[in-house]
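Action item from last week, closing it out:
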Amino acid sequence: MTTATTTTTATDAASGSVLLTLMKLRTFIALFAVIAFFSIFAPNFLSTANLILMSKHVALNAFLAMGMTFVIITGGIDLSVGSIVGLCGMVAGGLILNGIDLQFGYTIYFNVVEVCLITLAVGIVIGAVNGLLITKLNVAPFIATLGTLYVARGFALLSSGGQTFPNLVGKPELSTTGFAFLGSGRLLGLPVSIWILIVVALAAAYLARYTPIGRHIFAVGGNERAARMSGIRVNRVKMFVYMFSGFCAAIVGLVISSELMASHPATGNSFELNAIAAAVLGGTSMSGGRGTIGGTIIGAFVIGILSDGLVMMGISSFWQMVIKGIVIIVAVVVDQAQRRLQQQVTLMQLAKKG
């Protein structure tokens, strides 16, 4: 009887391990599935021009998803990233077109590099505000970032009275030209935004895996109380992840405004949903403590290809929202199932050794 029980336990453990491996590879499986599907049913899906266009769309989502990944790993959420995109785009557009009016007939204009640095600083500051609300005032992340979502969007609309900042070509005499390169330029055949994504992704992956702050991010998400008792400065870790999320959102605001050569206050509306979907689909656990930058990038590819493929097939935007919602729900359900299965497999392996 004991031998039969042991054999059954070993078989169950092996089966569970196989299923667990498939769950861990779900993002790769989903990526291959959407590529295969749209290659068959969407015309010109694999054309060079379309692949380059999709890569630019994926890059925008990937930036936001990387910041969201760190936030979710700590057990938080950032609903404000879409509004930060819109506000930062308006900041860049306003600086290029109008500069900063100091009254008395004086106006300061900045070159493109300075405009980009100021815009990135704005994104980081908004992220810091989120972090302070959460760490110092003990506001729940959902509520804190929901509030800054409305505040940032409101300031974006107020900055131009709800109007667009158009024609951001700048003026040579003011050294404000060259903004288009960020969104439309290419290096070695690839869009500049893709190169920026590669640099930021490598830096984020290195930070997560090889630095103390990266280990602290996972520790806080795994067990905040234990992390605090072990000497980790939890509040500083949370501040960092929200500031990084704001930084990534500012990059997206710059790239979109540069690509369109215009800034609109409604830019980035609902972008946070795609970012959350990409992070969760890439294996980031909504309960915190688990996630990878690599998985998030693949998740961003799945969401981006899904969005562009549905457009190419002529699917209604309303149905696209339904499908994305289903993707998020399925990703969370699979993640919870993976956690339960992981615990079961671990117990069965311990029973087998015993």
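Closing note: The longest strand covers residues 100-101.
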